[in-house]
Structure to design on (298 residues):
């Protein structure tokens, strides 16, 4: 049985959550009021009403309560003002308690039932007394949530080394896993200052072109492998997938020369100290050269 769903986002560049539109057909960029695990929330429609297969839906879906009204928009703006004041109060209380934590942001739920304080810290923080103080000031439920440096950058925003707004706070909804291997495969400098974002972690954009690099490199011989060139046999010392060239160090002269991709052919994984297969068979006393020594792994 197919389901009708609508995609809603609660923060800029936040995750998309799906709801049952019910009797409503909200257009993209319109506001809706929905029920979430945190209570009633205001969200923006980013995916219009669409039909998806039953297996792609985690039932039961919560329904859209209503389309946002002018009063809801005013309530949202009022909450934003409350968040600014709560942030300053939070800073003062953290200083008063002498806690080693950095307040990053404050979020006020739409229905006013909870205020969430986001912070970073090097380790675990005992903030029980701080919560009591904040609850006495705001007279509502208080939640303190410790976040990582990538989430901090997403909340605070900023400009990347490319000069554009950070991906994480402009459009990137989920953080992808990024490894130093990606930088190596793209022939980038391994200087941490050049491949790290303002959060101090490896730049998310290393992931964007990684699949293209991996696909392109499958067509090239591996660095260190032996190849044939118009000038004779040599060893691959580098590849350039943009220029479609392969750098080869020649066996005799040790000179390194760049060749077009189609002028180089692989010899297979064999180093200079390997004994030719025929001599191996003779040395091992193998009369039946059709058999291969060792086991084959599937």
């Amino acid at each position: 049985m197919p389901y009708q769903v609508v995609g809603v986002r609660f923060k800029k560049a936040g995750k998309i959550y799906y709801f049952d539109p019910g009797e409503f057909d909200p257009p993209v960029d319109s506001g809706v009021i929905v029920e979430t695990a945190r209570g009633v929330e205001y969200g923006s429609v980013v995916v219009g009403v669409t039909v998806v297969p039953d297996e792609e839906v985690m039932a039961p879906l919560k329904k859209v309560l209503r389309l946002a009204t002018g009063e809801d928009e005013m309530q949202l703006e009022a909450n934003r003002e409350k968040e600014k004041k709560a942030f300053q109060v939070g800073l003062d209380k953290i200083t008063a308690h002498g806690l080693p934590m950095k307040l990053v942001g404050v979020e006020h739920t739409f229905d006013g039932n909870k205020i969430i304080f986001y912070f970073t810290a090097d380790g675990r923080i005992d903030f029980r007394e701080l919560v009591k103080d904040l609850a006495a000031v705001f007279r509502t439920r208080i939640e303190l949530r410790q976040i990582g440096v990538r989430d901090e950058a997403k909340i605070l925003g900023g400009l990347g080394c490319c000069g554009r707004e950070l991906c994480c706070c402009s459009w990137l909804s989920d953080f992808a896993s990024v490894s130093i291997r990606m930088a190596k495969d793209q022939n980038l400098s391994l200087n941490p200052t050049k491949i790290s974002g303002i959060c101090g972690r490896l730049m998310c954009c290393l992931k964007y072109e990684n699949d293209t690099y991996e696909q392109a490199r499958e067509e090239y011989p591996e660095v260190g492998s032996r190849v044939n060139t118009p000038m004779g046999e040599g060893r691959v010392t580098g590849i350039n997938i943009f220029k479609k060239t392969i750098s080869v160090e020649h066996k005799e002269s040790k000179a390194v020369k760049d060749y077009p991709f189609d002028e180089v052919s692989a010899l297979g994984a064999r180093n200079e100290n390997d004994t030719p297969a025929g001599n191996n068979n003779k040395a091992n006393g193998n009369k039946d050269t059709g058999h291969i020594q060792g086991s084959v792994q599937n």
Notes: The chain has a mean pLDDT of 84. The chain is about 25% helix and 30% strand. The first strand starts at residue 3 and ends at 9.
